[in-house]
Known about the structure:
By secondary structure, the protein is of the alpha/beta class. 30% of the residues lie in helices and 26% in strands. The chain has seven helices and 16 strands. The strands form four sheets. Strands 1, 2, 3, 4, 5 and 9 form a six-stranded mixed beta sheet that branches. The protein has a five-stranded mixed beta sheet with strand order 12-11-10-15-16, with helices on one face. It has a three-stranded antiparallel beta sheet with strand order 6-7-8. A hairpin with a 4-residue loop joins strand 2 and strand 3. Its EC number is 2.7.1.63. GO terms for molecular function: polyphosphate-glucose phosphotransferase activity.
Amino acid sequence: MNVFGVDIGGSGIKGAPVDVTRGELTEERFKVLTPHPATPDAVADCVRQVVEHFGRPSGTVGATFPGVVVGGTTRTAANVDKAWVGWDAAWLLGEQLGVPVTVVNDADAAGLAEMTHGVGRGRKGTVIMLTFGTGIGSAVFSDGKLVPNTELGHLELQGHDAETRASTRAKEEEGLKWHHWARRVERYLAHVEMLFSPELFIIGGGVSRKAHKFLPLIEGVSAEIVPAGLENNAGIVGAAMAAAAAAGAAVPVSAA
């Protein structure tokens, strides 16, 4: 079963059709830059461009959003325009595309994909997926069940919002070497571990492709730490899975 998934991020908006039963993109993803300012109308237009790159949509579409999403409405907007707060994002994107749209938190979508098709498959206990990019997204699972909208990137760490210090954007803006950035990630993981005592950390986002450059440098964390198996496609896959589930399709979702 193919469903279209879109991953809306603070720096880019990407999407592709997804085989939701296998957790794989069926075509190479297409990406556009996130507009600035990233207002609802501007982002919705970019989402339309991404989807229509593959032709007019004929079925349901799933989309992620970098913030808290409840019932399709966006409650926070850390890395996009504040005008998103309180928007019915599912309605807005549905109007733009002309088909039903399911909107979920970006890290929650990535986590669902990893727990169903990636490195979290079959894992029990507490598993935390963290996506490092413009900010830090989080998805927390207890015995395979999702605790939605945790937003652990906004924990206070040494007097700062954690994602302003340990995100990929912070690394790039400050010109940090891998070993310097790894120390910040290490402190952040240790803080999250102290609060939740997970058995497994899954590290996602674009930086997961370069996990060998920083994960071996992280010390003092008891939990197992692994890069995302679906790498930066996890959000697209998870968005499509959420849309398929919302449409009543029988798709494997480990963390329903």
